[in-house]
Amino acid sequence: MAGRGTVKPNSGFNANNDAEVLYKAMKGIGTDEDAIIKLVTARSNAQRQEIKAAFKTLHGKDLVDNLKSELTGKLESLIVALMTPPIMFDVTSLRNAIKGAGTDEKVLIEILASRSANEVNEIKSLYKQEHKNELEKDVTGDTGGHFERMLVVLLQASRQQGVQENLVQSDAQALFAAGEKKCGTDESQFITTLGNRSSAHLRKVFEEYRKLSGYEIEESIQRETSGTLQEVLLAVVKCARSLPGYFAESLHKAMKGAGTDDQTLIRIMVSRSEVDILDIRVEFRKKFATSLHKMINGDTAGDYRKALLLLCGGDDA
What's the pTM value of the predicted model, to 2 decimals? Predict the structure, then answer.
């Protein structure tokens, strides 16, 4: 997957020069948003961290604090997200989803269903370091029932590796027996299988399941479960089938209809910008009657739109 992002390290990179460009863009009356957007979207996250250090060394000020005081609204959120190291960005997103009144289940589902085992482990240790509490404890304090159990399984980050050919058939049969075949649903079977098998293994199980039951696994999950449990199980299935496909659907959902879910738009565009945005664009074009570029263009405005389109890269007309 590496190298399928639109944001690449800048080859003639000089942290001090970049820090000066940003300093000038924010100095005096008014802010040169254009200069900030062009620079920040054309540097890798690792390079942005070096720019932060250089800015502090040269000017004795925190670059992110300066950006926050100069920018506003959605553009501010987007630029601050781009300046945050990826694991820290996930930690902050999860923390914001949990703390305060109510829980943003959508964020918990997206991050925990789509990140690799290594990433989940890094998220857990940084979360503890930052918030002096186990992520699992905060998640279980904020959720309940089968949904909570599925999130706990995902937090263990212990998916088996590779395909276990001898278990493909029995896994498919167990899922069939737990849902379509019986009156009621054995949710724990879905949780155990979908939460512990590798993506490659699950793809084979889904194929077998279709032959066995005549249904796609997604159809059965929609019939047999509901609410947040259904949402997390479907997210896991989609991620197992295709991560870029999952993110393409999430981006489309964030923009379609009236209003825009800017938080999701920012989270996905930022977190995938160096990973697989090019693949997400391909999937988006395949699934929907428009391109990601066109949809962002029609759904956002101003400097915020300009920055998102730079992260998107080209148009897939």
Answer: 0.96
